[in-house]
Design a protein that fits this description.
Blueprint (H helix, E strand, L loop, with lengths): L19 E3 L6 E3 L5 E6 L10 H19 L3 E8 L4 H10 L3 H18 L7 E4 L4 H13 L3 E4 L2 E4 L15 H10 L15 E6 L14 E3 L1 H12 L4 E7 L3 H16 L5 E7 L2 E3 L2 E2 L10 H6 L4 H9 L7 E2 L2 H18 L8 H12 L4 H16 L8 H13 L4
Parallel strand pairs: 3-4, 3-10, 4-5, 10-11, 12-14
Antiparallel strand pairs: 1-2, 6-7, 7-8, 8-9, 12-13
Amino acid sequence: MDAWAADDYRPLPGSGDPVRLHDTASGLSRAAARGPTASLYVCGITPYDATHLGHAATYVAFDVLNRTWRDSGHQVRYVQNVTDIDDPLLERAEQNGQHWAELAAEQTDLFRADMAWLRVLPPDRFIAASDAIAQITDLIGQLKDSSAVYDVDGDLYFSVRSDPAFGSISHLDDAAMRALFAERGGDPDRAGKQDPLDCLLWRRERPGEPAWPSPYGAGRPGWHIECTAIALEHLGAGFDVQGGGNDLIFPHHEMCASEAHVATGRPPFAQSYVHAGMMAYDGEKMSKSLGNLVFAATLRRGDTDPSAVRLALYAEHYRSCREWIDSSLDAAGQQLDRWRQAVRRPAGPDAIRVLADVRGRLADDLDTPAALRVVDQWTEQTLAGAGDDASAPGLVRDTVDTLLGIRL
């Protein structure tokens, strides 16, 4: 499946600093990549509704990682999935009177347009779960060979306790896991399961649901096994970073890791687990169930400047849970106008230090608020008439464009 068109990426002089990220599993700041090629898997959308700014905040954050890695000399191997087989999608399609595949295609196209508008660099591989059935069923076979699969009325489940490291990402106790599992698509109370936390691998065919042939009978995959199979197929075990919103820590990333550990026998699944904070609106986390959403497409169609949206998202650290306030977009627009005024000046203070400082801030766990302060300081000095370096405005413009995706 195609992603979206790549925007211009202008290399900067010199090379950026090695990136360090906060790893959820260890709680430590760790080197984000171990070799010349940096590998990243970011869990994608379930395409049953438009992209809201909570989604945008996550994908923009990992876009900064992609840009910062490239600037530090890495080749980047970036994979993102689309969960186009899942209960919320099927339920919404039924409500709308649409075929599930039509709804998925429509919403995926909308997501592509939103990401291109926000100048998010596309993944190298953009893969629908429905296009990965062969890899998913093969992976289930590997788990069966490891005696980690059992049957409940024709549905196949993964035994999470077959992985001794289960729980090592979220560090939650069983009660907390069980509550979150029930809240986030799990079925802890299903009769016949060996453990309430065991997760669905393959759901046998039900009337009116999509199904694919498999060695286990016609059916469709569970949620977690989709990402596990796609990541292993295209990045292999031990890739650098698995990313997403912090609502994926448990159960999704915990389950994916355990499935991979057992299937391959080569932990870890990812070297680091990196998570963006949730975005709230009107005092509650943005969610489709609550309806308190600010849609990227609404802003796009209203001629909002995407650079202002990115600036507003950068104002707080990507790991922080924060609230979208409508006035923050106005403030970001004013900040953007001042930056643009400054880079149109014929000269300004030396910008080599600006480039070095922005690089340093982003290498330190993608500290965008600190990076913005660097550019703000240069802007204020320039607008006050300081500096006589004719090359400085151009270098600041390129720094902001390449590393932050903001067009001045």
